Amino acid sequence: MTAGSTVLVVDDDVQVRRFLRTTLAGHGHATVEAGTIAEAIDAIRRFQPAVVLLDLGLPDGDGLAVLRALPAEQRPPVIVLSARGQEGDKVVALDAGAEDYLTKPFGASELLARIRVVLRRGGGTAATPAILQVGPIRIDQPRHTVTIDGREIHLTPIEFRLLLELARCPGRVLTHRQLLSEVWGPSAVEHTHYLRVHMAALRRKLEADPARPQWLLTEAGVGYRLREPAA
Amino acid sequence: MTAGSTVLVVDDDVQVRRFLRTTLAGHGHATVEAGTIAEAIDAIRRFQPAVVLLDLGLPDGDGLAVLRALPAEQRPPVIVLSARGQEGDKVVALDAGAEDYLTKPFGASELLARIRVVLRRGGGTAATPAILQVGPIRIDQPRHTVTIDGREIHLTPIEFRLLLELARCPGRVLTHRQLLSEVWGPSAVEHTHYLRVHMAALRRKLEADPARPQWLLTEAGVGYRLREPAA
DNA sequence: GCAAGTCTTAACGCGATCTTGATCGAAGCT
DNA sequence: AGCTTCGATCAAGATCGCGTTAAGACTTGC
């Protein structure tokens, strides 16, 4: 049983919204609703939903304006729900950035299945959870604190961002270039020695024996990774 | 104009294949074709297409067997094309791992648009799958680890890259020049001696009896290849 | 303007890895 | 058989990459 996700429903028809709300709620999804383009954009920024269900006929204009208003990287996947089933409409919407297009009327189980498809791709652009935990290491982004086995430790800004990058994909190796580019900016991809110094500092703070790291592992010649705790 | 990608068409109807082939070719996509489940799986391994168009009614069984035969990480995105439009069929296919589901008959422009959708997610390029498996040897690129029968083994950077090159096209012989050029750079194509030393090291690590290799085979006078497991 | 904390930069030691040369065996040719 | 060629193996030296330390420059808050 997957945990439900937050779904933003954008439609000006209250009937449709209620139908979708109950359907989604019945399968463990939290819903947020919007009736106009402006509300939709605002809700995406505010709630960072995992999926957006978007009707095209909105009172303040074409629903695709929502897609154009936000760059693809900071936009949740959008499934268009439209009464119009013309092939041309679908092509326009898909090319505008929609992930899928369902023609009304559609069945609830198909909609739920298509939501599962975009959710399982997940990761990607979806916002990282506010609190990450990898083994004994817990990163609380809103509070900007890191605790290890419950004990709070102080990290410098760079150390925090390094650890955050690694914790977003536990087990995966991040290359030197990736880390440098994310933390110091794309112009710093050459300065691999930055990493050595700051990784050493990180290890001193969060490893029991910094000389034999258990979590912050080096992949020689490639990069670093945070060990994924056995499931 | 985006560069076309390789598309695998899986359908037992020659008419359908020809229609899709010409449609796709007209939009810059190279096509590969398969008529059975076995052919499809083989073609995915061999050609690593960027997308698969999958018909469900194949002579040797349910087309969804293709999805079940390959783990999600080493499988290109699949768009199901089916004559059956029942909601239940769609849900089953989508939950089995398909990225999209089109009911025949469909329009060419919608199909092309939906192909563009899955391609833009994958970065457009037909990248090698993240996880490769050849016989008991499994290469996990994001984690940068190699396991053999589940046991993790440590490879040096050069060994890892050599094995990766070979595993990208199991069964095919890579010449000395190709391997040297890929791993050491184009200026090193003369130093065939490097290969002997590092291949020996690789065999020590992943062959049960390095003197009689089962997987890392020498093609005398030509190069090396990784044996393709019987399908 | 001072002080604490943080980041950059350089130098050094160490272990892992790569290169290089020598030796041995197998296969093919004269 | 003897020679030649190619591949496998081994070991030693050279090199590379990483961790560590510390000093100076910079930022930040008081």
Describe the structure.
Two copies of one chain form a homodimer. Chain A has 231 residues and is of the alpha/beta class. Chain A folds into two domains: 6-124, Response regulator (Rossmann fold); 131-226, Orthogonal Bundle (Arc Repressor Mutant, subunit A). Helices cover 38% and strands 23% of the residues of chain A. Chain A contains eight helices and 14 strands. Chain A has helices at 14-25, 37-47, 64-69, 87-95, 108-121, 157-168, 176-183, 192-206, and strands spanning 6-10, 30-34, 51-55, 57-58, 61-62, 78-82, 100-103, 131-134, 137-140, 145-148, 151-153, 174-175, 216-219, 223-226. In chain A, the strands form four sheets. In chain A, strands 2-1-3-6-7 form a five-stranded parallel β-sheet, sandwiched between helices. In chain A, strands 8-9-10-11 form a four-stranded antiparallel β-sheet, covered by helices on one side. In chain A, helix 6 packs across helix 8 (192-206). The longest helix of chain A is centred in the C-terminal third of the chain and has 15 residues, at 192-206. Chain A starts with 5 loop residues before the first strand and ends in a 5-residue tail after the last strand. The model of chain A has no long low-confidence stretch (mean pLDDT 90). The interface between A and B is medium-sized, with 28 and 23 residues. Chain A binds a DNA duplex (30 and 30 nucleotides) through residues 156-158, 191-194, 196-200, 203, 210-211, 218, 220-221.
